[in-house]
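My main concern about presentation is that the manuscript never shows what a single data entry looks like. An entry of this sort, consisting of the sequence and the corresponding backbone structure tokens, reads as follows:
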Amino acid sequence: MATQTRRRPPRGSIVRTATLCGGSPTITGTRVRVSDIVRYRRLGHDAARIRRAIPHLSEDQIVAALAYDAKHRREIDDEIEQEEA
């Protein structure tokens, strides 16, 4: 009988898990939401400054979060707006 192995998403990818951060898109293997990275970016922080603020993230992970935001801007904007309300 063959066994199945669960493949983990690659480091730096974005996942949605209903039981993690309320289902918000997060960076794989972390509890850092895409919206958290977007907020830093909107404050004018570059990737190096974001890494200093959240040192366990790699530059690839930050880039992945910003790329996700670029493709799903309305979703992330809505999430941020709801949290600020």
